[in-house]
Amino acid sequence: MRIILLLSVMIVCMSFNQMQAATISISCGAVGQEFAICKEGAESWAARTNNKVRVVSTPNSSSERLALYQQLLAAQSKDVDVFQIDVVWPGILASHFIDLRAYTKKQLHRHFPAIISNNTVDGRLVAMPWFTDAGLLYYRTDLLEKYGRPVPETWSELAETARFIQHKERAAGQQRMWGFVWQGRAYEGLTCNGLEWLASYGGGTIINQTGQITVNNPRAAQALTTAASWVGDISPPGVLNYAEEEARSVFQSGLAVFMRNWPYAWALAQSDDSPIQGKVGLARLPRGNAGGIHAATLGGWQLAVSRYSQHPDLAADLVMYLTAPAEQKRRAIQGTYNPTIPALYQDQEIL
Prior knowledge:
There is one protein chain. By secondary structure, the protein is an alpha+beta fold. It has helices at about 1-20, 35-50, 60-75, 90-95, 115-120, 140-145, 155-170, 190-200, 220-230, 245-250, 265-270, 310-320, 325-335; strands at about 25-30, 50-55, 80-85, 120, 125, 130-135, 135-140, 180, 255-260, 280-285, 300-305. The strands form four sheets. A four-stranded mixed sheet has the order 8-9-7-10. The protein has a three-stranded antiparallel sheet with strand order 3-11-6. Helix 8 (about 190-200) crosses helix 9. It starts with a helix and ends in a 16-residue tail after the last helix.
């Protein structure tokens, strides 16, 4: 009788442990170090909670990733529990995600209020801020110093400096040198670049608050005409098929003077195996003209839990772990992923 009772207790304990342990799948981007750093964080959570994680790689192109997400969610697929979503997607995908507010343990005040507001749809917190982005100008400090050129303040100054150094470097034997690389493929990345150009020239908004189309104005036309003139001059013809990684590849190979990209590229450009380590500077993106402004598109990524997850509580726990201060600090130091928690910008190790 005692043996039977003991066996029964063992079976109950085994069943309980099986119920507690689960495999949570999370989609992670694959731009630069993103996939590896995401995997490390997710596996750290799994080790702490005695669960397992499956990291799903997604397309680099944000447009292609959104299309994939829409297919999975429309099919109510259970294949992905946690989705990494862009800052402009909460409104598009909100109906497929659970409300995370009950899982935050009143920690929302730690994050930038604007991003929390961005991720709140009809009163529901559909995603937690993970890291934030803004467009930056990368430049070769050694080349600007070599030719006595300052960091450009306007787009016209950038074009003139890029053209001058490109010509000089090619004359010295570097025939593959280009002046400026950016994201020119027909996808969301080009939209970000385009918005920066329009704003920097004072071109206004595409549509105003009353719904009128206002982009057809001289300043906006000047901005787009200027950018178009770079192709084949200071930018390679192939830039029209560049996303973030194609631009970074050219710049990090030492074949471009300037690059527009997100903060993630800094850690890679300064890595031990980078040909341009120690030769890179960062600056605000140029303004359009004397009356223009320095403008950077807001980027960034969030984590959301699928309504169709078989383990929503565990998935939400993973999200809270990955978006907490300790993990955001690790990611900031290891991969230059900008935190969404203002207090971390006072952390000496991050600074």
